[in-house]
## 1
Amino acid sequence: MNKKDLLTLKDWSGEDLIDIIDKAIAIKESPEKYVNLLERQTLAMLFQKTSTRTRVSFEVAMTQLGGHAIYLDWRTTNFTLAEIEDEIKYLCRNVDIIMARLFKHIDLEKTARASRVPVINGCTEKYHPCQASSDLMTIKEKKGRLEGLKLVYVGVQNNVCNSLINGCTKVGMKITVVTPIIHEPSVDKELIKEAEKSGLYQATLDIEKAIDEADIIYTDTWVDMELFLDPKFKKEKEMRIKKLKPYQLNESLLKGKDILIMHDMPIHEGYEITRAVIESSHSIIFEQAENRLHGEKAILLRLLGTI
Ligand code: CP
C-alpha cells in the first residue's frame, strides 16, 4: 500500500477533507471511543521553528490515542550537520509517522520522498494544512454546515491564507481575501488559478464591502512569528504595520456585525486585532485553537489507516 502524506490540502479531495472534518467532530464528541487506537505507535515531531499549538496538540493527541510523541528541536539534532534525506531515512526506521515544521516547503517534499512512513506538514512558508482543516471543523461545529458560507481573510497573504483558500474552495465555501501585502515566499500561482476557476474565490482591498454578508472574518499575524522580534526585520515590520493598520479587526470595523471572528494564533494584540475583539462574544479563537487537538487526532488516525 502506498503511504499517505499530508503536505498540503491539495493531497485531499473535497470529500476527503469533509470526511476528516466530520471525523474530528466525532472524535471530539466521544474521545473515549478512540483511546489506544495508536498503542505502541510513535510520532516524531521535527521543528525548525517555534510552536505552541502544533507541538502541544500533536503530542497530546498521541498520548490520548495511546501512542507516544518525540519532540525534535532541529537545532539540537544532527539534522544541522547532515543531509535531510539521510536523517529522515534513519528516523522513519524507528517511528511510525513524522510531523515536521520546516522553513522551506521544498525540504518537506524531500522529507516525504525520503520517508517510508507518512509525513505531515506542521507548517511551512507555503501551507498550514492542519490549521485550515481544524479551522473548517470549528466553522462546521458552529454553523452546522460549510457549503455556501462566506469567509473573509484579512491581512498578509501567507501560508495560512493559502491553506484556507485551498480548504474553503474544496468544501464549497466562498473565500474573499483582503491582503494588501503578499508574503513572496508563500506565493502559489497555481493555487490561486484553481481557486479562481472554482468561482468561490475573490480578492479585494475593500474590507467594508468584503465583510458585508460574511459569516466569518479571519486574521493572522502581520509579521512571521520568527521575525517579529528580530531587529533585522524592523524596517519591513514598520512598513507592514503602516500598510495594514486600516485592516485591523477592531470594534469600529465589526460594530453591529453578526460575524464569527477567527485567528490561528499566536496573537499580536493591538496590531492585527484588538483585545476587545479577541474577547468579544463573536470570537471563537480559543475554541479554534482547542480544536487543533481533535483535528490532529483525525489526521493521525487517517494517515495511519485506523479510521
Ligand atoms: N497556529 C499555530 O500553528 O500555532 P503554533 O505556531 O503555536 O504551533
Note: Residues 51-54, 123, 131, 264-266 surround phosphoric acid mono(formamide)ester (CB under 6 Å).
## 2
Amino acid sequence: MEERPIEERLREVEQRAKQCTACHLATTRTQVVFGEGNPRSPLVLVGEGPGEQEDLTGRPFVGRAGALLDRALREAGIGRQHVYICNIIKCRAYTIENGRARNRPPNQEEILACAPWLDAQLTLIQPLVIVCLGGPAASVIIHKNFRIMQERGQWFTSRWAPAAIATLHPAYILRQAGPAFDKAYALLVDDLKAARARVIELKQQQRQQQPMPPPSEEQQLSLF
Ligand code: URA
Ligand code: SF4
C-alpha cells in the first residue's frame, strides 16, 4: 500500500497528464482538463470531454453545460466542491464547420488513448458511486453498448465503483426546448438525487460492516 496521501498522488498523475501526447488532440488543445474537486469524495461525476471554456480555463464543466450542472447539483443537495468531476477524455475534441469550432463526441481511438488517465484517477479515488453524464461516459464506465435513453437512471456496478448510474448530459438538455427541456432537466435532478441517496446508503453499510472499535479506557471503567 502506497503511503503518500491520495491528493499528492493524484497531483503527480495530473502533472504527467498535462504533458500527454498520446492522441492527436494534444496538437489542438489549449490546456489539458484533468479534473477537479475532492479526491476523497465517495461520489465522482464523469463527463464526455472539455468544451471551449474548459479548454481555455483548464477546468471541467465551467461553460454553459457546467452552469446547468451546477444548478442541478444544488437542486439535488450536492455541493459541487464536495465531489470530484472529470471527463473520459482530457483534451477538447472539435471540428471546424463554416469557420467555427464545433464540439464533437470523442472517437474510439481518443477514448482508448485517454483511458489510462481516467483509470489512474478512479483507481486512486475509489468512489462508492459514479454518475456518468451522457452516453459516451456510460459506455466507458458501465458497459460498452450503453443506450442512454433506455438505461439512464438504472443502477449498475462498474470496475471502478460498486454503484454506477448514467444520466442525461447537460449539453444535451440545453439543446432541448420548452417542455422537452423541463422533462430532461428533471431527469438529471432525479438521477443526481438517486446518486446522493445511494452514497448515504453505501456509507451506512460500510459503517455497519466495520468491526466495533475496542472500548476506550473510559468506557471500560464505566462498565464497573
Ligand atoms: N461537457 C463535458 O462533458 N465535460 C466538460 O467538462 C464540459 C462540458
Ligand atoms: Fe492525452 Fe487524453 Fe489529451 Fe489525448 S485527450 S492527448 S490521450 S490527455
Note: The pocket of uracil (ligand 1) is lined by residues 47-51, 54, 60-61, 63, 65-66, 87, 133, 171 (CB under 6 Å).
